[in-house]
Amino acid sequence: MTDESTITIRVRFRTREAADLAVEHLVQQVGISRPDIFIQSASDQNTNGTSSSRGDVNRLDAPHEGEIEVSADIAASQIPAVQQSFGNAGAIHVTGK
Fold first, then answer.
1. Is residue 84 part of a domain?
2. Could you tell me which of 3, 12, 62, 71 has the fewest CB atoms within 10 Å of its CB?
């Protein structure tokens, strides 16, 4: 019997680029619906991550005030695939509820 209870998994990334890549992996490789995935600052500060990525390297106004959080509402049976996908994208911290 497959466990289809829904959980929310939260992951932190150092760059917005890594967070965006993780979202694309979840949608394209794992089959998570895009409306079930959320991206936000992991703190109360406006941030583009803790370090620059290629897309923001020349922007002097890109704030680097903290990590980027990606959260997704997933079926419990998807946990292994989602964790692997997040790991491949460079996740630095994972929590689930």
1. yes
2. 3
Range of the domain at 19: 6-96
Per-residue tens of pLDDT for the chain, all 97 residues: 556 799 999 999 988 888 999 999 999 999 999 999 999 887 776 565 555 555 555 555 555 567 889 999 999 999 999 999 999 888 987 876 5
The reply to whether 38 falls in a domain is yes
Task: Determine the 3-state secondary structure of 16 from DSSP.
Answer: helix
Quickly tell me which residue has 């932190």 as its tokens. 12
For residues 72 and 96, give the distance between their C-alpha atoms in angstroms, rounded to a whole number.
10
1 domain-assigned: no
Distance CA 41, CA 58 (A): 21
pLDDT at 82 (0 to 100): 92
Q: Residue 4: CA atoms inside 13 Å, Cβ hemisphere, count?
A: 2
Q: Which residue has the tokens 């941030």?
A: 47
> ∠ CA 85-89-95 to the nearest 5 degrees?
65
